[in-house]
Design brief:
Layout: H1 2-22, H2 41-46, H3 52-79
Length: 80
């Protein structure tokens, strides 16, 4: 009977150590979407800036990033 308590406690300690290994040192609001774990996704979404200025900034970053990507590939293919 004493052995079953030891086994139960050892399972709890294993689960605790695995949870502490998966804990992220970076706060959720400082992560990019690809770095967010599935369980952190709802809190990550709620920390986004949903004001008009925030949404416009997100579109501007996406637009500028896309054209920077296109220009880099155009320059690469021009010389290769």
């Amino acid at each position: 009977m004493g052995d079953s308590k030891v086994e139960c406690n050892s399972w709890v300690s294993i689960a605790d150590t695995q949870a502490s290994k998966t804990a992220s040192p970076v706060p959720v609001n400082g992560k990019q979407l690809m770095d967010v774990k599935l369980g952190e996704l709802p809190s990550w979404i709620l920390m986004r800036n949903f004001t008009l200025k925030g949404i416009a900034g997100a579109f501007q970053r996406g637009h500028c990033g896309y054209y920077k990507y296109e220009l880099d590939h155009e320059r690469f293919h021009q010389y290769h």
